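Hi all, long-time lurker, first post. I run a small reading group and we've been trying to get comfortable going from sequence to structure in the token notation. Rather than ask abstract questions, I figured I'd post a concrete chain and ask someone more experienced to write out its structure so we can walk through it together at our next meeting. Sequence below, copied exactly:
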Amino acid sequence: MKSGNYINPLYKLSQIDASTVPRKISYSQWSMYEKCPKQWELSYIKKLAPFTHNINTVFGTAFHETFQEYLTTMYTKTVKAANSMDLEQMLQEKMRSEYIKCVEDNNGEHFSTPAEMEEYLSDGIAILRWFLKRRAQYFSTKYWELVGIEIELCTPASENNNSVYWYGFIDIVIKDTQDNKIIVLDIKTSRNGWNKYQKADKLKAAQLIAYKNYYSEQFGFPKDNIDVEFFVVKRKIQAESMFPQKRIQQIRPASGKVTQKRVQKQIDKFVEDCFDSEGNKNETRTYQAVAGKGAKNCKWCPFKTDYENCPKENRIRE
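-- Answer (accepted) --
Happy to help. Here is the structure in token form:
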């Protein structure tokens, strides 16, 4: 169970013990394969990828937990109780504790500075203050209820293989009690918000499409009654802009039947190509390295200079 987990008791019956399933895959694992099968092989079969922490993940975790605690209090208690919370102090404490934990995981090696931590904290406080003044524009308790925070998804990833389960956590799910519709929200922390290319990125959008599909499967809720949304919070806003700048972007990608089928078909192929009927990884097939247009897939890959395991001449460019 993740920190800050809350789920309406009515939905708990649809949850299973994830430790009992044969094999789990996640959006991050599948999306890595979609970009570059070789990176997936080196990371998940050969287990060569180093795990590194950075200030963005520290801030993202702390902000998520702070924001989610506010919403949990607002929906399960009162708006007044939520507004009385010292969110700024909470964010500071969560950033500090998360950073300490990450440094311990990193064998005591620091990866940020007090000045950088202070800058991120200041940005987070600015987001919270901006949001609290406009909270009713985004979240209301009238006709809305909280289904859950960090809702655990664990359900078969493909009809063709019951040994491989999709596993992940949905940041926020709220329900319109009048129309019996829900919104699945994923919080994204960003420096300047998403540009037109990020908004148009089908693989990025596929995270919420998959969540929609699997939420429907696990909880028996009609897909037609599920909307999805990226809730993007900006650390920085444009100074001296001609137009008022918002700290929040609400991005709702297309999630109709055609898109749902396309995403599920891609996941089905991933499961078919990479796992056997018992959920074991396919270690015998060839996994191609895909650099992509302008070698964009290699830019942040931990194996970009590992020419022994991923020879440069074998990388496919578009």
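A couple of things your group might point at:
Strands lie at 6-7, 23-25, 144-158, 161-176, 181-190, 226-234, 248-251.
Residues 216 and 223 are 6 Å apart (CA to CA).
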